């Protein structure tokens, strides 16, 4: 009897937490659809004319999703070999926080501000992708970004320094008349300009301000080359590390095609076990 | 007699479908000019003051183009060795859809909405380019984009996740007063900002909103480095593979290191004269 | 006597057309300053309140520049061994067109429209740089851009095709109410959005239009990776061609440091004549 | 006694100027926090409603920061082995200028315009980072940017030439009615457009202006590839040079190919153990 429960639990675990079996895959796909549908409903609920017309429908759907996600949460706790570890893991907390807001809305007024929390359900999609082959591609990207982290930090630090100094200069040059009402706002404008976003809600009016703004734009236009260069160099290296770093035992050459069996230079058999 | 028709048909086929002969090239160039002229006419027809002044002219030209394209369509069917295969091919359907709207406008009111379909004539230009040497360059680009497809998909997925979460946060922070009237609209704003487009039709007004917006901009400014890095790495690889396009005479594999003497797969001597 | 004139002419030529001698360098620097000053005066003349205050001064300066440039033009003709060749060369025509507008303004009313022509004086700066060491760097850039010309043409062609089709779709979806008054204007909006410029003078208002706009932005954000990738690959190649493509005569290896005397692998003397 | 003072001074120097010891690190961190806090206070002081509410608090804090920075400045002079060299060094002047404005505000009216100078305190952060391991990453970036300086100068020169010519053309085409009131303003608009910032405070209204604007945008979209390509190529090279940092024991040269056995310059065997 107890053995049955254990084996059931193990089976459930493979369905709920893994995606090797057909049942596991089906479970993941249904969950993916439910999460996306639930986030779309949360989004549409905030559109005024849709909320007016379909509020009861939205609420019913929201409860349906919450109950399904609650069931899933309980299943995960039940099938987990160490339930507490799951509950306090990152994804365990995300799972919990994605169902709490709806229950809270029964007791607390102003539940609108829990919307963000409900949208965090999207993070649960990350778990599903974690199980798939997408993760390998993600690894190359992540490794490249991690390797270039210090370089990007130095770069960002320099940019922020620049942005504060230029922002202060624009505040003095343009002043409140052109919308540069304070240094923080001027810094905001400088970021908007340097990143080439350019809303146009604040724009320099004086000739001197426009000259400085032109310099900021051209700088921003050139500066974007730096993170791009950093990431490209890191990705090239990260790619190379994934390829073949083998040395030919005969002629000591490197640079073989990934998966190569024979040396391109001397024809020597590279890897006996391959 | 029947032989004559067959040889005529083959000749027509070489003119209409190919571009090796002088006649075929002339046909392609005339067709290219007609397509461009027809799309320019469709565009200009939508400009109010031009439509008021020249509507009869536009209609006459449109009928002229339609009749010419209809003739071309019939010629293609006639000269095709397997007409049905052509009719249901991608370009066959594009050819058909590029003449239907004008005929439909005789019977259906509101033909304006078929404009899009008429603009799709542009797709037919793709066929002409398919025959030229431009296609090789296109292949390098396409191969690079295809090879980086999964990486770009992971990247886009992460960006979309981010965009939905940030959009929801901005909706809660800024609210309807600043134009963030719903989550979908806030998501739209986030995309406008992250991609550094920055219309300025919606812009954050609260200090907290502007701080979050600044983070989004700097993120967007850095994130653009990722697809650029991906494509550059893939293009470098794609270029390299085209560099040494030698086929191993023993195992028929390509993709050897430039200057390789031995096949990396079977160790066969690649180039005796090297 | 005639010999004297000839030698004078040759001397003048070395001053006016070359920059090896001290006199030639001084001439170039004075000319550079005059051109920049003249273009700045032309620019400032268009600022309403400056024109009102200083019009007589501007006109005097303009005549001074014109007379100096005329003298220079005559000197160039005189010192040129084949005057006609110079007059009808690219820079000869630029030199002529940079002095004509001021003389024409004596006879023709509406000389304001010759302003552009006066600004073309800037092109003469290109000649000065042509003589300096900057030209080498320019060559690497130009070679890289030329080599990637066909690829960029294919890329631009595809982008234009896309822009026309998306522009037409936006025209049908949004219509005149949101400012998409005609297909040409919608195409203009699509270019503004795809290139991430985003003026905001026209912006989509309908949900469907905003969804399509979001797709255009994300596409534009990703598409920018393509020209960057193309140019980076070409520049890497162009750089490499400038470096050492020598093969070691002893071990047949390539990839030596530029200017290397000895093979990094076997220590063999690479280039006897070096 | 004198020895004690000397050793004290040396100890102070290691705390104030270096960051190897625990005391030195603590000093740096406290200084970093003080600088950031002081700049944040300067920024917030410019926000109208905060200044109204908390002006006395801001002034007290400002005096507190100024006195602390003055103490630090005196300490630096005292502990410096050659005080005059420190006082007239770059960071010595920055230290001085970051305390002067507050003292000046006692005597001079209009101290608001010294704000910029107070923000320059941020530059002092650069000194702290100079002592940390971040500096290595910064070196790679700086070296890459320096190496590509001439190329970027040629590129920027060409862009500025283009910007002036296009700006003048837009002035003639659009005229004052669309906001292109002068050539300098038109040049400003061209920079705003070419860098894809796109405020939208000035936007072309005529069809011809919009066509030219479209060309500028597509150019700007493509041109951004050039600095990115330059920096990427330089960074790749700069990375490679750091990879093999071996010095030839015979001729003291660096920059060998990774894995090189012999010096490329003198043919000396580089690494016996390799």
UniProtKB/TrEMBL annotation, chains A, B, C, D:
Q: Which UniProt keywords apply?
A: Ion channel, Ion transport, Membrane, Potassium, Potassium channel, Potassium transport, Transmembrane, Transmembrane helix, Transport, Voltage-gated channel
Tell me where in or outside the cell this protein is found: Membrane
For this entry, list what GO says about its biological process: action potential
Q: Where would you find the membrane-spanning parts of this chain? A: 29-49, 99-120, 152-173, 211-233
Location (main, coarse): membrane
- Tell me which domain of life the UniProt entry assigns to the organism this sequence originates from: Bacteria
Which Pfam families does the record match to this protein?
Answer: Ion_trans
Any one GO molecular-function label of the UniProt entry: voltage-gated potassium channel activity
| Chaperone among keywords | no
Q: GO cellular component terms?
A: voltage-gated potassium channel complex
Q: Where is the Ion transport domain?
A: 25-239
- How does the record say this protein sits in the membrane? Multi-pass membrane protein
Query: What PANTHER family does its record include?
Result: POTASSIUM VOLTAGE-GATED CHANNEL PROTEIN SHAB (PTHR11537:SF254), VOLTAGE-GATED POTASSIUM CHANNEL (PTHR11537)
Its name, as the record gives it, is Ion transporter
Organism of origin is: Pontibacter fetidus
């Amino acid at each position: 009897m107890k053995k049955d429960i254990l084996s059931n639990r193990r089976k459930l675990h493979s369905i709920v937490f893994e995606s090797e079996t057909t049942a596991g895959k089906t479970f993941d796909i249904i969950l993916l659809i439910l999460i996306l549908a639930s986030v779309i409903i949360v989004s549409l609920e905030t559109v005024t004319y849709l909320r007016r017309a379909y509020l009861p429908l939205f609420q019913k759907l929201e409860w349906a999703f919450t109950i399904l996600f609650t069931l899933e949460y309980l299943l995960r706790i039940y099938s987990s070999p160490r339930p507490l570890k799951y509950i306090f893991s990152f994804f365990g907390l995300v799972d919990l926080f994605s169902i709490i807001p709806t229950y809270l809305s029964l007791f607390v007024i102003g539940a609108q501000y829990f919307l963000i929390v409900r949208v965090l359900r999207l993070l649960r999609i990350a778990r599903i992708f974690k199980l798939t082959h997408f993760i390998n591609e993600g690894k190359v990207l992540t490794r490249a970004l991690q390797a270039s982290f210090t370089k990007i930090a130095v770069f960002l630090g320099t940019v922020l320094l620049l942005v504060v100094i230029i922002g202060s200069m624009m505040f003095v040059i343009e002043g409140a008349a052109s919308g540069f009402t304070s240094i923080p706002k001027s810094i905001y404008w400088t970021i908007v300009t340097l990143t080439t976003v350019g809303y146009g809600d604040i724009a320099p009016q004086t000739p001197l301000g426009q000259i400085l703004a032109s310099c900021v734009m051209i700088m921003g236009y050139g500066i974007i080359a730096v993170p791009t260069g950093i990431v490209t160099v890191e990705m090239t290296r990260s790619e190379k590390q994934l390829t073949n770093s083998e040395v030919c035992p005969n002629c000591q050459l490197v640079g073989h095609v990934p998966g190569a069996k024979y040396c391109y230079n001397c024809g020597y058999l590279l890897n006996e076990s391959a």
